[in-house]
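@channel anyone free to eyeball this complex?
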Amino acid sequence: MEDSQIIALKDVESSYTNKGKEQLYLKSINLNVTTGEILAIIGRAGAGKSALLRCIGLLDRPLTGIVSIDNKNLTFMASKELCAARRAIGYVTAKPNFLGSKNLFQNIALPLQIQNKHKDDINKLVIQALTKVDLDQKATSYPSSLSNYQAILADIARNLVNNPKILLCDDIFTLLDTKSSENLANLLRALQQELQLTIMITTNDAELIKTLCQTAIVMQQGRIVEKCSVYDLFTNPNSDIAKDFVRFATKHELPSSLRRKIVTQDSPEHHAIVRISFIDSLEPDEILGNTIDAYELKMNIIQAYQEKILDKVINFMLIEVYGANSIVQDAIKFLNSNGLQSEIIGYVTNIN
Amino acid sequence: MLPTLINALRETLFMVLSASLMTILIGIPLGIFIANLAAVDNKPVRGLYYIFFSLMHLAKFIPYLLIMLLFIPLMNWLINKHYSYSVASVIPLATAGILLLAHRIYTATFSLYNQWQATGKAMGASKFQTFWLIILPESLPEIITASSKTCALMVGFSTIGGALGAGGLGQLAIEKSINQTDPLVVLSSIAILVVLQQLIEYTGNIVVRQTQPR
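replying in thread with the prediction:
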C-alpha cells in the first residue's frame, strides 16, 4: 500500500500573520491519499479547505510538519527543486489568471516555456492538452473572450501540459451552471481514468460529491474532523459538521409536521420513529417484514426514497414502529446486523 | 521673436528629455524593485520598503515648486562648478519624475504580483520567471502609459523651474507676461508647451497599441 500513496501529510500546521499576530489556520493535519482517488473536501467557509489545497500544492510552506508528494518530502526542498516538484501538482481555481496580451495557445504554452522546452514539443503538448479539454477550436482566441466555464477548462489544460499526477481544484464548480458543472465532472472523471490523476476538489455540492468523488474529507476550524468514503458520508456521518451537511444536502430532513411533534423522551404512549438505510443489493422487504413479524411489532412507512451514490443505489426509509421500546431496540440491533442500518431518531404520540 | 522662442524650446527640450531619460531608466526598475520588496517578510527589508514607499508618497503630495526649493543648495553647488542653470535644474526634475513614475509602476505591478503568485508557483515558475514571463508582459502597457504620462508631466515641471531661472519656455513666458511687453511670445510658448505634452502622451498611446495584439 505504501507505494500507491501519492499525498502524505504528517502533523502539518500552517499559519498566517494578521496584524502582527500569528494565527493558525491548519491544525495538526494528518492525511494520506491513494493514487487515482477523487476526493471532496467539504466544510463551511473559513474551515481551511483552500488552505489545505494550498498546503498540498506547496504554495504555502507549512509552519511545522511534513508534506510528502509521491514519496518525496517537499517541506525542506530548496526553491529550485521545489519549482520542479510543483509541476507534478496541478492547481485549478474558479477565476484563473491568463495573460491578456497573449492568446490561449501562448497562455497554455507558458508552463513549457518556463522549462525551456523545444518549440515542436510545445506545439504538440499544447494541442494535445487543448484537445483533451475540447478547446482546440479556441487556440487563437484571447482569454477575455472565454466564458467562465471555458476559462476553467483552459486552466485545466494549462496544468495538463506539465503532466501532473495531482490536480487540486479550488471551488471550480461554484460559478457554473448545472450543465457545465456536469460536463466538467465528466471531464475530470475521464482525466482521472486516462492519466491516473489524483483529484482533490473543495466543494459543498452534494450532487457532485455523490456522482464524482470516492472519498470525503470533512474540515472544521482548520482540522480534518472526518475522512471517509462518500458512501459512508451519506449513510453514516460521524461528525456534527458532516451530519449537518448531509441533512441539508439530502432529504434526510423530516417532514415538517413530524419535526414539530418529535421528542427524544420515550414513554408508553409514544412510538419510535426509525430511519433505515440500505443498499439496493439487499432484499429489505423480506428482512424488514420478517423482523417486524418475528418481534411482533407493527409498522407504518412515513417516507421512502432512493439516492444514487457513485455506482450504488441507497434506499432510505422512515418508519413509525408500534411496540414496547425494549423490543424495538432489539429489532433494530437485529436489522443492523443484517445490513440495514437503522437508528431511532425520536418518538411521537401520533404523527397526524 | 523666433530665435528667442527656438532657443527657449531648445533649453526646455534639453531639460525634459534628459530628465525623462533618467526617470525612465531609474524609475521603472525602482518601481518594480519596490513591488518586489513589498512581498518579502523580513524586518530590514520591510524598513527599506517603508522608506521608499513614503518617499514615493511624499513626491505625490509636495508641489513641485517646493521640491525644487529643497534642491537649491545642490543646484547652487553645481552652478558654482560652472554648470548651466538648465543642467542644474535637471536634478530636481529627474528626482520628482523618478519618484512619481516609481509609484505608478509599483501600483501597476504590485497588484499583479498578488494576483499571479499562486498561479506562477503552481506552474513551476521561479520568482524570476514569474516576473520575466508573466508580470512584465502583463504590466507592459501600464508601464508605457505611466512613463509617457510622467514625461508629459515633466514638461509642466520644467516651466516651474523657469520661475527660479532655469531657462526654457517657462522662464520666457514668465518674464514676458510679467513685463507685459510681448503677449504673442507668451501665447506661443504656452501653445508649444501644450503641443509638446500632447505629443509625448500620444507617442505613449501609439506604443501601447503596438504591444496589444487586438
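from a first look: The radius of gyration of chain A is 25 Å.
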